[in-house]
Amino acid sequence: MILYVNSPKYPPRFRNSILSPLNAAKRSFTNKQTQSGTIQIQVLLKLVEGGAFFIPSDVQQALANQMEDLLGRL
Q1: What number is the average pLDDT over the span 15-32?
Q2: I need a surface site. Which of 3, 59, 60, 63 has the fewest CB within 10 A?
Q3: Total domain count for the chain?
């Protein structure tokens, strides 16, 4: 997801607001705090689905799909 947000497909003006929570979740998973990382991704998914980041709908859907995929693998 972090790679996607940093890609040219992702609108640059919306990058920073979503990178912070994604990086926090990544740190949790890196530190083997899977439950914490999972909760962070679940909350972030709800925020993305609810339109909290004001990103275009296609980008919103792509992020939501990636988060749902990640959560399905945990």
Answers
A1: 94
A2: 3
A3: 1
How many whole angstroms separate alpha carbon 4 and alpha carbon 59?
Answer: 10
Asked whether the predicted pLDDT for residue 61 surpasses 90, the reply is: yes
How many CB atoms are located within 10 Å of the residue 7 CB? 9
Contacts (Cβ under 8 Å, ≥6 apart) of 54: 14
Tokens found for residue 19: 């990178």
DSSP string, the chain: -HHHHHSTTS-GGGHHHHHHHHHHHHHHHHTT-HHHHHHHHHHHHHHHHTTTT---HHHHHHHHHHHHHHHHH-
Which residues constitute the domain of residue 43? 2-73
Look up the pTM and report it: 0.85
